[in-house]
What we know:
By secondary structure, the protein is α+β, with helices and mostly antiparallel strands. The protein is 32% helix and 13% strand. The model is unreliable at 1-14, 44-49, 547-554, 683-688, 730-748, 921-1090, 1154-1201 and 1278-1286 (pLDDT under 50).
Amino acid sequence: MEADAVSEEGAMAEERPPRLVDYFVIAGLAGNGAPIPEETWVPEPSGALRPPRPAEPITDVAVIARALGEEVPQGYTCIQSSAGGHPLELSAGLLGGTQPVICYRRGRDKTPLVELGVFYEGKERPKPGFQVLDTTPYSHSANLAPPGPGHPRTYLTYRRAAEGAGLHALGITDLCLVLPSKGEGTPHTYCRLARNLNPGMWGPAVYLCYKVGLAKANTLVYEAELLGRYPEEDNEAFPLPESVPVFCLPMGATIECWPSQTKYPVPVFSTFVLTGAAGDKVYGAALQFYEAFPRDRLSERQARALGLLSAVERGRTLGGRAVRTRRAIAVLSRWPAFPAFRAFLTFLYRYSVSGPHRLPLEAHISHFIHNVPFPSPQRPRILVQMSPYDNLLLCQPVSSPLPLSGASFLQLLQSLGPELAIALLLSVLTEHKLLVHSLRPDLLTSVCEALVSMIFPLHWQCPYIPLCPLVLADVLSAPVPFIVGIHSSYFDLHDPPADVICVDLDTNTLFQTEEKKPLSPRNLPRKPYKVLLSTLTNLYQQLDQTYTGPEEEASLEFLLTDYEAVCGRRARLEREVQGAFLRFMACLLKGYRDFLRPLTKAPSEGSRDVDNLFFLQGFLKSRERSSYKLYSQLLHTQMFSQFIEECSFGSTRHAALEFFDSCVDKVRPEQEKPESTSLVELEELSGSELTVFIMPPEEPPVPEGSEPSPQYCYDGFPELRAELFESPQEQAGALPVPGPSRSAPSSPAPRRTKQEMKVAQQMAQKSAAVPELWARCLLGHCYGLWFLCLPAYVRSAPSRVQALHTAYHVLRQMESSKVVRPDEVCYRMLMQLCSHYGQPVLSVRVMLDMRQAGIVPNTITYGYYNKAVLESKWPSGTPGGRLRWAKLRNVVLGAAQFRQPLRERWQRQQQQQQAAAQEACSSQTVIEALGVLEPRGSPVPWHSGSLSDLSLTGEEPAPGGSPGDSGSALSTQSTEAPEGPSGRLPKTGGQQDEASTPRRGLGARLQQLLTPSRRSPASRVPPPELPADLPPPARGSPLDSLLHPRERPGSTASESSASLGSEWDLSESSVSSLSLRRSSERLSDHPGSSQTPSLEILLSSCSLCRACDSLVYDEDIMAGWAPDDSNLNTTCPFCACSFVPLLSVQTFDSRPSAHSPRPAPARASGSKDAPVPGGPGPVLSDRRSCLALDEPQLCNGHMGGASRQVEDGAWAYLSPLVLRKELESLVENEGSEVLALPELPAAHPIIFWNLLWYFQRLRLPSILPCLVLASCNGPPPPQAPSPWLTPDPASVQVRLLWDVLTPDPNSCPPLYVLWRTHSQTPQRMAWPGPAPESLNLDLLELVLRYVGLNEVHKAIGLLLETLGPPPTGLHLQRGIYRELLFLTMAVMGKDHKDIVNFDKRYKSAFNKLASSMGKEELRHRRAQMPTPKAIDCRKYFGAPLEC
């Protein structure tokens, strides 16, 4: 059963998912019929102007042999000199040389050449699609190599563009030869062939270079305008940027003249990124295409420029020409779903050039914008069917802490290779000017996004334009670093700036000048660089095997079946490349957190400077000496300063930075191989995930008997008409979110990041194998639950500062309990509240404690700490009064420590007296052996005044309760501790006979020790002087455990402080919670009352396993929980079956109802067995009265008919891991305010009652019990000043019980109930069914005798014999261990029973019986004791509960 079974947590209405697309726009020239302006739009040159490029591409290349008398063919151009002007002569000076010369021809009669190559005959085969130029135009050999046997025959090879490529096909536009020996390099934007054209021993090396471009003529360029948009109104959170049109057409809106028979080129897809002032990104995708343009809108000058008019005969129009214009359609989104955008825009373009259609184009646009959401966990896969033949699939992005971007690391690696990719990484780290250019505009954005993503966690702070329009080309002359992507045709007019590093993605080259040359890769850390290069090289070799087909052409069957299998490999390689760069950055910044400088004093000018926040020189000295130059430049970059500021003060990237810290901890820079575990985990897509189908827009209805007739036909992309758009409709199933969910806190402090959840899950899995660690792990999550509720608790407290100090002491208590890896969220939550309420000094103390606990604060915690120190108001002057009180506190604590030897000496004396008393007594009866009642005959020889040191003269019990009643140490909402008996109904009967006696007798002292408290801690009146509290002595015998019982929170917890005349608890067990007791005493400003609590709540986690009909108790349930935050099941210790435990709740309201007066409380004075407060108390021979002292008040407020039961229910008992996940979800959706609303118990009962159980179990202050009373009172009146006002906590009493609240009448009663029935001892409940005859009083006394004589194995054997073998024997729902434990606790009292000693004796008895009966037989009959994991859970979660 998974966590989603908690129906009340998943019942929240789902919020409407975000749209995939926000805007649709059309860009181009205004189409209103007005004449085009005469002035063409030409950008201002940002570099040196180049000579104009030829208008026609190269269609043929040839080789001629000068030595054989061959001439250059007509129309060909001969290359006679190198690019630097040096003369060229291949095989010069060699006998028999042909002196080959390369020639080329331009034109448009053929398809252009697109690629050249050099072929060595005999060593390889020609590449597919290439033709070998082996002869000259005069039929001679076209061998370029010099003659000779040692030189391979060298030929040129070429490849043409495909037939029908059209006018705009890419082709070779220029050729040149370079001589490296003359200092010549490859010209910018040229591609150089790697093979030497002169491989002989004589002559210089010669290399052929060619340039690929788009040769166009007769073109006018204008700035693009916005022609249409949808929706017309701007979104307030995301207004449409004004610069969108120029990004849709980065090279401008053009008017071109083509031959009439020229086919339309394939539309060009491009992407771009717009960055806002706050650093948020807007992703755009555009599809550029050509349409017909009317000639009448052109002037004569424009027509002549386009070649439409004859240059010789003025005014004569040339025929066979067509005018075209370039337009673009685009979408804008906050998500980089570029493949989906491409498919949608392509569908719209095809829709506009086909037809007719029954639906307008506007219907498809509005339907896509309003009805297609971005994938979410609730909708992981969305299949959009735009038409019967056009589909696209949207998948939820991989869940990763890395920021979502449009980067494609595979395209980066495929375009540049491993070496150039690392060189670019080095250039970005040192903030150089980078200019990335390509003829493929869609490639620019993907590569530029990868460049800024590979330096994670650093964030590029300088200008960043992945696809730069020509109108913004001036940025190339900016004096600051930048990363700019631009179309390669820009360099047809301009040379690149001298101080810019140019990256050509088409030729895989890096162009840079010597004066601005970046650092060499040798400056990188040696081993991390070696691992990075090796990893990228390995991945680079795998790229050819991946699928690279166009996804927009995929069929519906492919999208539903093979899409994930085919594209999953490519996604995995993408993550592996990104993980390689991430590992390198983690190694580069390894140990940086050790050099952060936290703020520890009041802020001053320059506190936010990097030098004050980070120890730069120390970090630099800790690096390799060979990398000093790199680190010196890196540490002074803007992005590193921003990174340190984000780490010091927090930012919106807190989750990503925290993830990077975990990566830093995982990497080992000294290794020469990457780690076995991947830093970036890729979630495998599963075909079984939910797929949401979105159908195309509905066609208009057709009248019966008629055929549908198409109405919409387009000659081009139409102008958008507002009346044809569909109105947005509410999406089915997307209900509006209720009001409280809108108040979710913006602060991430209460929430764990995904990385923290992952680490916590791993720690839980490791701890589950070790019993002690598992108990401490659960305990740590319980404290995490309390700190998650801390904001509501602090707001409810009358003194916020005091509540913060209470939380600090709870934090110290958590540290002292040695939980598994103390939760960092606890420290972070307290730091955030310190910042909010202006307590910087307390925040510094929390940070110091955190470091002493061995916890290195992550980015989120560190940011909140520095915020608290920097932004809070520091106290002025010296806190004289507070300092004096602190000194007084230290003196008192020191005095208490000095009294410790006196206590130990007194304990030794008492032990000697008890030993002498035991030797004098005879062990004839079981009661004597147990030490519960006095042996028949003579009383125990007590010495007069043996307990006189425990009391002072003038000690008086307070009215209605014991003198030392102080309640729970950490409870603010309850009148008793979870396992203590304090806070019960007052005892009104009896006289205080010895109220003024200086020294009371033994009976009065025993009454003080054993009688439950009769009033709430809120109403206690401490006596003026009380002695110091005494620690419990070591238990030597059962009688000893009775004479020196354990300290009870309700009776003796404040005795040590009474002598100081205050209500501070200075006992040895509560020194760590000194201030906590005072601050958590009461949340209400109303004075406490000593009256009966208005509400009593009983809780029990004892659950029945249906498989074996056995009761499973709290510690066994804890031990059976799985280390999974989504699993509600526990494992039965008897049958090993899984079941969901339940938390039973009973609420009793003792307030008078509206129709009947409140009955008087039950009085015990009429009973002769009732002890008299202040009197001599019961003697040891009075068994019934003595046992009654350890029981709750008769009926405990609900058995005497004075109260009415309000609620009786059972809810799922959740593991702290599961509960924390559900609570975090609740707080995230509805805000922390929901934890203080009276509607919480009814709206989220599972969360509420589980929180109340754990907080009471650990005695943590809480306002939850007050919410029960507030919910019983109904909704607050409208004039209530604040929702944080809660009832007086003294009016609510919470009791945690070990056994079931409501017994099964058909089951056999437990032995302890039978004992109380036979001995006429008052008990909480009467058993509804009859008891078997075999379970009589004689059996119980005999069992007790065996236990008292330390013969537990005989007691076990007796019970097994009495019950009989299963299944015919008598069945008890409780195991043998529980029956014996509860029976002895009922006889001796919960606080007088040493369970640890009992466990040892029972284990010894079990092993003794196992030798004769066998362990399996004993387990089968449920005689085994709890597992070590269960025992440790009981140990760490406090004292035993009530039976």
